[in-house]
Amino acid sequence: MIQLNVNGTTQSLDIDPEMPLLWALREYIGLTGTKFGCGIAQCGSCTVHIDGDPVRSCITPVSAVLGKQVTTIEGLNSSAGKAVQAAWRDLEVVQCGYCQSGQIMSAVALLERKNSPTDADIDAAMQGNLCRCATYVRIRAAIKAASKQPV
User: What is the pLDDT of residues 68-121, one digit of tens each?
Assistant: First the structure.
């Protein structure tokens, strides 16, 4: 049995330790907010936080997160997380929505490290997240709006 700490809860799973974290989250724990996009860590749809850092769960084996805190979109409840989610709604960022959980996870990680990011900071933090609908202008605006919220 493997013990994973996901969204503050210990999960005991009988799985291969080399299984990608994405599949453990979706198929074994039932947290489907983290999406499968490309499977090669190029699109960012599968982004989760591991001890606060954004990580692509499609290529991260479960064994790499043992003893660490995994946070998915479902467990995002920090001040920055709430501010980003509110800004996403207020500015109507989402079109198809498929990439948005990964986008939000990357944006929250940025704001938890830097509460007043520059355009360059945003570009660097979001560069691994692709949006098929090209809502990049609204994504940037939402990150800036969220950064102005009290933490």
Answer: 999 999 999 999 999 999 999 999 999 998 999 999 999 999 999 999 999 999
- Which pTM does this prediction carry? 0.96
Backbone angles phi, psi at 75, to 5 degrees: -100, 10
Q: How many CA atoms lie within 13 A of 82 on its CB side?
A: 6
Structural domains of the chain in order of their starting residue, each with its CATH number: 2-75 (3.10.20.30), 79-147 (1.10.150.120)
User: What DSSP assignment string belongs to 30-96?
Assistant: --TTSPPS-SSSSS-TTEEEETTEEEETTS-BGGGGTTSEEE-GGG--SHHHHHHHHHHHHTT--SS
DSSP-assigned letters across all residues of 91-140: TT--SS-TTHHHHHHHHHHHHHH-SS--HHHHHHHHTT---TT--HHHHH
